[in-house]
Amino acid sequence: MHLRAFVLSILSAPTALAAVNEPCYGSGGVAGVCITTTDCTTAGGTTINGACPADASTVKCCSKTSCANGASGNCRWTSDCAGTTVSNQCPGPSQMKCCSSSATGFGGYSAPTIPAVGGCQAVAVNGASALVAAWPGRIREIFCTRACSCPGTSDHCCGKAIDFMCSDGGGVPTISGQEIAEWVMNNRATLNVKYVIWGQRIWNPTIDSVMAWTSWRAMEDRGDITQNHWDHVHVSFN
After folding, report:
1. Do β-strands 96-99 and 201-203 pair in parallel, antiparallel, or remain unpaired?
2. What is the C-alpha to C-alpha distance for residues 58 and 126, in angstroms, rounded to an integer?
3. What's the predicted TM-score (pTM) here?
4. What is the C-alpha to C-alpha distance for residues 213 and 182, in angstroms, rounded to an integer?
5. In angstroms, rounded to a whole number, what is the distance separating the alpha carbons of residues 19 and 228?
6. What does the alpha-carbon distance between residue 113 and residue 135 come to, in Å, rounded to a whole number?
7. Mean pLDDT of 97-113
């Protein structure tokens, strides 16, 4: 195959969006999980099309809005539950449980430490401060630099990227990052944004128009919750 044709074929190849057993957004934005339609039906859930678009046709976004844990019992990721949880009533992995509260349960964290200007560049520090101020209680922890030489393979190597951890722990799934990521997009000029990633989707102001997160470009499946950006919003700055 000619090199150019080969490159084009790679660029046009479908990418996996929400990996199996990872989060998705069900009808109305409720918490969902990408599992097979058979497993969803067995668990008493309902599926919607298009929320796990690059997975096998038998894998769809499954949600369950009613379960036995008080009058408001509903299935959601434990990090997003504002009440108590009960196991073995919900589709997906063990972190999807029956929550007693109808509240989103997002956040509730103490203000994270903002990194000092140094290895972390001023543009990233200023961006982190602005986002934390705009979303009080929603960011648990902030990471800026990594142990790698600039330019490296990540903007973290140069101190020009921030990971905004928005779940109860690293590797703990949440659906809370969507509105934060869209806020970053809408404030791109003020923040001097290079690109933003949430939930295996990426948005870049130099090539993408302003749109809902559901229409952002899909990224490949990197294999786990953190690398697929389901526990943090990544923002790179210019």
Report:
1. unpaired
2. 44
3. 0.91
4. 6
5. 9
6. 14
7. 97
